[in-house]
Amino acid sequence: MTGPFRYTSPAPPKSAAGVVADVYAQLATDFGIDRAATFVVLSAAPPLLAGTWAVMRESLLAGQASRTGKEVVAAGVSLANRCPFCVTAHTVLLHATGDHALAERIARGEQPEDPGHRQLLAWGKDMSTPQPFPSGQAPEYIGTALVFHFINRIVSSLLTEDMLPGGAEKYRLVRSVAGRSLARTVRRELVPGKSLALLETEGPAPEWAAETPIGTAFGALRAAAHLGAGLLSDEDAALVRASVAAWDGVTPFPLHGEELPDRAERPGARLALLAARAPYRITDEDVAAWLAPPFTDHCLVHLIAFGAICAVERIEATLTTRTEEHA
């Protein structure tokens, strides 16, 4: 399978079976895109695929908070992470909500006109700031932001920057038409919790999730992603964790050459650390230095996910429970 996949060769979605087929079916119904590359690239690791989908579904797609607001937060996260693929995706989805002017302002790198949307975009870029939404909506907004910190890193590590063939997404008309094609799906009201039956892992739910399905999904994703640490020696896994812990969780990619493990000597640690702190800097040489038998696509996806979840947990630790006044 070619297209946007840089280093893996996922099986065609039409050949999927088991939980992978079930996730694709729910994607088609609830997201409107049954072959989204963001999820297909995870298909070699079904627990990761199911966990990622479940957190996104339960936080971004289901619930009572504004879908527009959550898309703005996701766009802010993607801008902070320098993930053009995901910025475009949220621009298209804002077109789907009917917020066409807002979508294009964000696409042009401009600030939203609405003060509330400006606050949400800023919070998406820096989650250590006061939360600009009611406390009752915090699980949805926080879950949305954290899952896209994870997804951004998967996308930047394993996919090309083009969301559509030939980079067609650079045209406003294409973005608008793509969004309008998803409008009916985006505006549907989903029943929370429907993705949880797909989960293959489990882990403790975070306090911020307030006993919602988002917490169950996040615990499962965290557990699945940490399995990737088993691909590293204890020393290399500790190095990745220590480097991420020393990061402030906010400053964009403060990673210097001398902090990176040597490609020839510690290629796995280098890949995982780049995935956590600077995924856009992963090169063909970095992947080739590690991805050789017995390692497979399944292993590469899990290794990248380990780095990604370490970063997500560091960002999660910056959260403040303070809220701002709302209009």
Topology:
Layout: H1 18-31, H2 37-40, H3 46-61, H4 67-80, H5 84-97, H6 100-107, H7 115-125, H8 138-158, H9 172-181, H10 183-186, H11 213-226, H12 234-246, H13 267-277, H14 284-290, H15 297-316
Helix pairs in contact: 1-3, 3-8, 3-11, 4-5, 4-7, 4-8, 5-6, 5-9, 8-15, 11-15, 12-13, 12-15, 13-14, 13-15
Write structural notes for this entry.
The chain is mostly helical and 327 residues long. It is 55% helix and 0% strand. It starts with 17 loop residues before the first helix and ends in an 11-residue tail after the last helix. The longest helix is centred in the middle third of the chain and has 21 residues. The model has no long low-confidence stretch (mean pLDDT 91). 51% of the residues are buried. The chain is built from 15 helices and no strands.
Give a brief description.
The chain has helices at residues 18-31, 37-40, 46-61, 67-80, 84-97, 100-107, 115-125, 138-158, 172-181, 183-186, 213-226, 234-246, 267-277, 284-290, 297-316.
